[in-house]
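pinging the channel bc i need a second pair of eyes. not urgent but kinda urgent?? the chain im working w is below, pasted from the shared doc
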Amino acid sequence: MNIAQRNIGLESLVPIEIRDADTFLAAADEAQVKAWLYYFPLLYFYGQFRAHTLRWERHAGSMLIYQIRRKEGQSRMDLYLPPFPFNVSALRYAQQRMEEFNGNRSGRIIWVQESDALPVARAGYEVFFREEEFIFDRAAVMGLEGSGFKKLRNKISGSLRQGHVDTRPYTAADWAACTSVLENWRERLIANGIAPNGYRYTRACLKTADRFPHELLNGLVVECDGEVRGFAFTGHLAHTLGCNFLCITDTNYRGLSYLLCYRHMVEFPKLIHFNDSSDTGRPGLRESKQLFRPIEMHGLYGAYMRQ
C-alpha cells in the first residue's frame, strides 16, 4: 500500500490513549491474560512510534489491537495480539480487515500467548514458538526461604553493602539522572553486540510515567551514596497479576536489579504472581531471572494465516 493509501481502512481504528486503561484492564481480566505483551503501559508506549503504530477497536465483545508498520512508502497491517477475550468471529473479522488493507492473505498475529495457541491454530493459522516468559510467585519471593532462594538472598544483601544504598519512588525530577543510566546501558549493550531492546519505549516511559496511576505504572529508583544508579517500573497487568516492566541499572554496582525487583514486589501485596518477561536469548539474564525461582515458564508464539 503506497503513501496516499495509508489511512484507507483505518477510519474506525483509534490510537491507544491513557484514558483507555480501564477498558484494556477489564478485557485482560476477562480473558485471564498472562503474557507480558498485554501490559497496558507497554501497549501505550510501543504504539506511539511512527514506524509501527498500534490501533485498536472492539468487535463481537473482544479487543482487537493492530500494528501498522510503515517502511519505504509501504504500509502493512497485522494483529499485535489475538482478540481478547478470544473470539473466533472477531479473529475472522480482523483477518478480513488485514486482507483488505494488505491486498493479500498475509495477515499475521505477532504475539500469541500459550492459552491462545491452540484456538488460533484451529482458526486456520500456522503457529510457531517464539520465546518463554518467567512467572514469579510473589509470596515465595517475599519469603526468600529455603536453599532455593539462597543465591537471591545473597545478591540482595550484597547490593546493600556498597555504601549507602536505598530505593525511593521515581519522580519527574529523576528524568535526567535515569536517562543517563539508560544511555550508558544502551552503549554497553551495543559495545557487546547486543541489541538494546526496549530503549525507545523506556525513554518514553521515563518522560511520561507521572501521567499514569500508581497501581498501573509504579517507578522506583535506586541510589548509591546519593547518586541514581538504576530504576525500575512495575504495575498491574491484570487483577492479580503484576508486570515487571523495566529494570535498568549501572552494572558497576552489583545486585541492584535484584534489589529493585524485590522491593517493587513488596509494593503490591494484593498481587499473586508477576510476569518478568523473557530473557531475550541472553544466558546471563536467564540465570538472573532463575534466582527468583519461577513457578512457570509461559510460552509465547507467533502465527500467520495458512495459504
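so Residues 1-8 have pLDDT under 50 and may be disordered. and The CA atoms of residues 229 and 250 lie 5 Å apart. — does that match what u expected or am i reading it wrong
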